[in-house]
């Protein structure tokens, strides 16, 4: 046989594209030619594959070899084509039998013939299952990750020889524990230990801040903490990571797919069972936040999907960097357009940000050393449209000595989390027909249906709308926050006290205006 085809795949953004690796061996000048709109790392595969075949004990006669990666209109990148190229060549040479049609192969080869780990295995295997593929040959280091997909035969190969044995059905599937995970209740115990976070019980004072954090997490709302240095803003944000509700299996796999594409999953425990908490330094670029590159990869907002994105020292970020977050905060996804196509990344995250009121952090206290011009310039680094997307804004005041010296602990994160889980379950049941998961995601008809106001409540909002100069977006976000406050009190209707508390958390710059 002088021609053969092997099924493989590649990641395009977060989407999976199937590639047919074709090899033709014929008499003629001994050349190795690869075609198919290839990037430089794919073109280099030729030398790796030829050397790996020889060093693995197979014969490679001096013949004309042409390898095509189809479809030719799609740009090919990455090193995961090494193993399928070697398999196609050996099949074309007649040294091994052609594998089944429903067999997919991915993997990188070293010169010695060993198979190296590649990224993006989980989404590839999941998509392969949807397309009817029943067997996947992957690097041994990726077996645990690939086996998260049920009803799929996963075979790991540490060398090219082992891959050939797998293609000839002489190598059995490697047994692992993760394939039995079906119950979300035991998910964390089965996969990995629970991550430790700071506890709200160790936080002194700041009861108002704790309350705002609980409301924000319960409804999935964005939160801004303003206060002087040392008032507990950063600690509050890290405590929030400990009160996030648990993931279900579907959400866990969705997050793991994103991390798999970037090669960030753990080899032994690849399944991510804790909601992400991403803390980004203020020197981050726009591409680092939303994703980018010639062939875009997900950024921090996608890595924070279903979790929290924490931006400390918010005014220190470049203004144009913060502005790129406006659309993802509203739409909960980000679209990137490049020469090779359009890419969509999920970005359903909860934003937690912290900032000082001025460069020295002491304004409006008397010991502030900043000039009015400096204070105004510092606050103007954050645009009003950006602040309009913040649901709750709370002041973290300086902690008093009597609070620090008090040995009595406050309410623990465990107790707060119980209430949050109860409220999230209420929202899940309430919105099961709309597809919304939290109050923060309400919009349109769903907002009007579930955030109805009585006569008294309408008068409160009418007065607040004019006094606070609210926008339509600000108005709807207040209703969503009030809905969450009502849920925490197990109230079916939004009452005046719920609206008043929600209005108290609305961003109002008058206190910090020079």
From TrEMBL:
SUPFAM superfamilies with a match to the protein in the record: P-loop containing nucleoside triphosphate hydrolases, Ribosomal protein S5 domain 2-like
Pfam families: ChlI, Mg_chelatase, Mg_chelatase_C
Superkingdom per UniProt: Bacteria
SMART domains: AAA
Domain AAA+ ATPase: 219-400
Classification via InterPro entries: AAA+_ATPase (IPR003593), CHLI-like (IPR045006), Mg_chelat-rel (IPR004482), Mg_chelat-rel_C (IPR025158), Mg_chelatse_chII-like_cat_dom (IPR000523), P-loop_NTPase (IPR027417), Ribosomal_Su5_D2-typ_SF (IPR020568), Ribsml_uS5_D2-typ_fold_subgr (IPR014721)
Gene Ontology molecular functions: ATP binding
Family designation: Belongs to the Mg-chelatase subunits D/I family. ComM subfamily.
Protein name, as recorded: Mg chelatase-like protein
Protein's organism: [Ruminococcus] torques ATCC 27756
């Amino acid at each position: 046989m002088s021609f053969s085809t092997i099924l493989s795949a590649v990641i395009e953004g977060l989407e999976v594209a199937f590639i047919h690796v074709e090899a033709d061996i014929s008499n003629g000048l001994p050349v190795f030619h690869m075609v198919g709109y290839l990037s430089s790392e794919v073109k280099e595969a030729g030398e790796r594959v030829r050397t790996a075949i020889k060093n693995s004990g197979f014969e490679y006669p001096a013949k004309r070899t042409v390898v095509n990666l189809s479809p030719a209109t799609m740009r090919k990148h990455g090193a995961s084509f090494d193993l399928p190229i070697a398999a196609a060549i050996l099949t074309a040479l007649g040294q091994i039998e052609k594998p089944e049609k429903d067999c997919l192969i991915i993997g990188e080869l070293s010169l010695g013939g060993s198979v190296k780990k590649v990224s993006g295995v989980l989404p590839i295997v999941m998509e392969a299952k949807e397309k009817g593929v029943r067997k996947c040959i992957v690097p041994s280091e990726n077996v645990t990750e690939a086996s998260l997909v049920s009803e799929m035969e996963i075979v790991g190969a540490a060398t090219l020889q082992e891959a050939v044995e797998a293609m000839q059905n002489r190598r059995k599937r490697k047994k692992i524990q993760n394939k039995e995970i079906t119950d979300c209740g035991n998910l964390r115990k089965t996969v990995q230990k629970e991550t430790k976070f700071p506890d709200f019980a160790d936080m002194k004072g700041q009861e108002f801040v704790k309350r705002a954090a609980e409301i924000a997490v319960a409804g999935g709302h964005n939160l801004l903490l303003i206060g002087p240095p040392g008032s507990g803003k950063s600690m509050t944000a890290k405590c929030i990571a400990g009160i996030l509700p648990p993931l279900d299996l579907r959400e866990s796999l969705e997050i793991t797919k994103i991390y798999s594409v970037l090669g960030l999953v753990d080899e032994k425990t690849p399944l991510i069972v804790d909601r992400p908490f991403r803390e980004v330094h203020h020197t981050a670029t726009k591409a680092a936040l939303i994703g980018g590159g010639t062939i875009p990869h997900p950024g921090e907002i996608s890595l924070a999907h279903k979790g929290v994105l924490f931006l400390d020292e918010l005014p220190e970020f470049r203004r144009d960097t913060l502005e790129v977050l406006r659309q993802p905060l509203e739409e909960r996804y980000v679209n990137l357009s490049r020469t090779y196509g359009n890419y969509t990344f999920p970005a359903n995250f909860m934003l937690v940000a912290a900032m000082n009121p001025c460069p020295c952090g002491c304004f409006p206290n008397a010991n502030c050393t900043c000039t009015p011009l400096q204070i105004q310039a510092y606050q103007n680094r954050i645009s009003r449209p950006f602040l309009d997307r913040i649901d709750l804004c709370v002041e973290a005041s300086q902690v008093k000595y009597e609070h620090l010296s008090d040995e009595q602990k406050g309410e623990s994160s465990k107790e707060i989390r119980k209430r949050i889980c109860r409220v999230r379950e209420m929202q899940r049941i309430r919105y099961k027909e709309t597809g919304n998961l939290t109050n923060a995601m309400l919009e349109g008809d769903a907002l009007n249906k579930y955030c109805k106001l009585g006569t008294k409540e309408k008068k409160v909002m009418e007065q607040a709308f004019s006094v606070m100069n609210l926008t339509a977006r600000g108005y709807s976000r207040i209703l969503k926050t009030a809905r969450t406050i009502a849920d925490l009190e197990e109230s079916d209707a939004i009452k005046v006290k719920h609206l008043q508390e929600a209005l108290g958390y609305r961003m109002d710059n008058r206190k910090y205006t020079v």
